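Proteins fold. Shown next:

***
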Amino acid sequence: MDSSSIYQKVLEIHDHAMGLLRSTKIPPYPSQYKKFFDQLFSEIADEQLRKDQENVDQKVLGDSKEDVTKYLDMVEHSVVSFIQAHSGIASVAELQRQYIDTASSESADKFVTFIEGLSALNQTMSDELGKAQLQIDYLTKELHEARSALTTDPLTKVGNRQGFSEDIESSIEAGASKQLSMVLMMMDIDNFKFLNDEYGYVAGDKVLYFIAQTIKGMIRSGDKVYRFGGEEFAVVLNRCDVAQAQAIADKIRLKIEKSRLIYSGKNVHVTVSVGVTVHQAGDTLDDLIGRADKALYCAKKSNKNCTVLFDW
């Protein structure tokens, strides 16, 4: 079975699962979606499709383990390097202590010699401290880059779902008893399957990158965009009220709608549907995502290419 046939079969199972969730009005949280998808997969998938799923699962598990291993290796390297960088400082400090302990005060000449020697050791200490600071700066940069690699979507160059969870969970916990001036927007590319079928997966990837970078370029520096999964993006706006959120969402949506994209000489028309919600006191992360997903679902049902706000 070729990759195109596999993709089509899996997409059919996905569409069927989403249809069941919609018909039963069950929110498509990952856990709910997985339950329906797995059940349908077990009923429909043939031997070849099951084998392909096993290969994908093993690859995902392997990639995950590799990411964690790389990060742990980086931490271990940082600790070792930090110890090595400070060993020189410790050695100089010990020399200074020994020098002072053996100092003689019998004559002025010997005292002058002692001061000169101590000054030389102090200069050595200063040099070692400088080297250590350079090493610390380098290790800090390495750790930052390692974390960024784990929380950045490689295709669109914006945050991934893991980065979204890490960034927003602490804010949600802080707002457990109060309302935060934070807005969550969920944006989904309309008719993305058609775009892939009509223009190919390379064109689809370019559209994903275009959408991500367009959103990133239209929000403030304190706001963030993440590829939440597939063709769906999450946008977190801070210090933002309902009116501002609606205006920003529509501005981004209209910018995308009016953009003229060309791939292989063909015009590619792209639109997005947007679901918007504001943080409420007592919200969990699932509460916030759930309302944004409901708003997005309504936008999809309203002929797409529109913005729907849920603020209750």
Summary: The radius of gyration is 28 Å. The mean pLDDT is 79. The chain has two domains: 68-150, 153-310.
